[in-house]
Description:
- The protein has helices at 3-35, 40-51, 54-57, 61-85, 87-96, 99-109, 117-126.
- By secondary structure, the protein is mostly helical.
Amino acid sequence: MSASKQLFTDAALKAGIIAGTLDATAASIQYYLLTEKNPALVFKYVASAAFGNQVNTSGTLLGWAAVGLVFHFLIAITFSFLFFLNFKYIKKGIAQLDFGRCCIWFVCMGSYEPDSSSYQFWQALCF
């Protein structure tokens, strides 16, 4: 493998692991704070996407959570590689469109009632 391909692979893999770790940590903390339940349930739910109702009828919580965590990292690393492969096109798109503000707007506008102060805050921030 050439040096540039090795550098690309290492960078994309590290970015995927970092993104997956931060995302898993944030999801676990948020789930616990909102529900006061075991955060392993989040990753059991991820595993249920692949294994269906089997996660509720067999195995242990931590076993299925480990499977879900593996799937979570596979997804994070895959998207990291896709991002790295398409960066030159994404970079061009970001220059033409304020991508970050649009993403914030789509995510935030869908999660607030139009009359709430939070909605008005995000609308003022995004426009």
